Amino acid sequence: MQLKGAYCSANTRAHMDISENTLLQTLQNDLIDLRDTVRKQQEGLKLLRDDVTALKCKRNEKYYQTFLEGELGGGHKNTKYGVTDITTDVYHVEIKHWCNFKACLGQLQAYNHKDNKKLVAAFFGDTTTSKKLDIIQLFYDSFIDVWELCDFDFGVKIIKHKVESDNDSFKEWLHEHVIYNQDSIVALKDICFSYCQKELYKKDKAKLRMQIEIWISRTFPMVQSKCMESRFNGVKYYGWKGLKLKS
């Protein structure tokens, strides 16, 4: 009886060992299958990322120009300083990647010389949030609106950025207090003092001068917008001929 019991016990242990080995082999096979599935999914994701990258590369200035022409109407316009991306009765629009913002700024300012259209910089592509905010502020300080062209599954969305700025109040003040008069002059220092009610440091006057020049170019295209040192009726001044402050 003892021998029979020992035999049964050994047989049971052997059976358990076989079961454990079978289970272990099954788990190993499942793990191999899982790894293979993950590898295939990773390969699929890589192909998808490659497709997205290729799509982004295809979406260049020409792609967005075609889109905006459909939204705004208008098209290229030959100017003395080059060919605009899109010009309508209202807008000059320049389309650039965020990294080309410097070229965009110069082109818009040149195209609007002796013109009075609303300037728009339409940017596309990727950049950092901080750089984007800096660019938006730079263009806003130059009275240029910034639109962001964002891709999504069914097309392109236009985000029109707005910036809280003191420039708005200064522009309103200029509209209310500076008028055209071909027989008058207005000095930079007089505008600065009238607006701020105090004498300004040179660097502060320079900031206002830049904003005034842009405002003049858009509001009074018949007036030389660049602040210049000259004489008028024997009086030396640094400012603009053809404008005056309201009394």
Element pattern in H and E = HHEEEEHEHEEHEHHEE
In one word, what is the shape? elongated
Give unreliable regions as ranges: none
Cα-atom radius of gyration:
35 Å
* Mean pLDDT across all amino acids: 83
- % residues in beta strands: 15-25%
**Alpha-beta classification:** alpha+beta
Strand order of the largest sheet: 3-4-5-6-7
* CATH class placement of the largest domain: Alpha Beta
Query: How many structural domains are formed by the residues?
Result: 3
Count of beta strands: 10
Q: What would CATH call the architecture of the largest domain?
A: 3-Layer(aba) Sandwich
Question: Do you know the CATH topology of the largest domain?
Answer: Rossmann fold
How many angstroms does the end-to-end distance come to? Answer: 127 Å
Alpha plus pi helix count:
7
Specify the biggest β-sheet.
5 strands, mixed
Question: What does this entry look like structurally?
Answer:
With 247 residues, the chain is α+β, with helices and mostly antiparallel strands. The protein has helices at residues 2-58, 61-72, 101-111, 129-141, 167-177, 188-196, 202-219, and strands spanning 78-79, 82-83, 86-87, 91-97, 118-124, 145-152, 155-161, 178-187, 228-232, 235-245. The chain folds into three domains: 1-58; 61-161, Rossmann fold; 167-245, Orthogonal Bundle (Arc Repressor Mutant, subunit A). Strand 6 and strand 7 (155-161) form a beta hairpin.
